[in-house]
Design goal:
This protein has one helix spanning 12-40. By secondary structure, it is an all-alpha fold. The termini are far apart. InterPro entries: MmpB-like (IPR058070).
C-alpha cells in the first residue's frame, strides 16, 4: 500500500449509522433475554 493511497476509513455518517445499529442490536438482544425470563417465570 502506498503512502499516497486514500485512507480505508468509512465516512463519518456511515460510522455513526454503524454505531447506532450496534446499539440497537444490543438493546434488542437484552430485550429478548428479558422477555424470555419474564415469560419463563411461572
Amino acid at each position: 500500500m502506498l503512502w499516497s493511497d486514500p485512507k480505508d476509513e468509512p465516512p463519518e455518517e456511515l460510522r455513526e449509522t454503524q454505531a447506532m445499529l450496534r446499539r440497537a442490536g444490543l438493546l434488542l438482544a437484552l430485550a429478548m433475554i428479558l422477555a424470555m425470563l419474564v415469560l419463563g417465570a411461572p
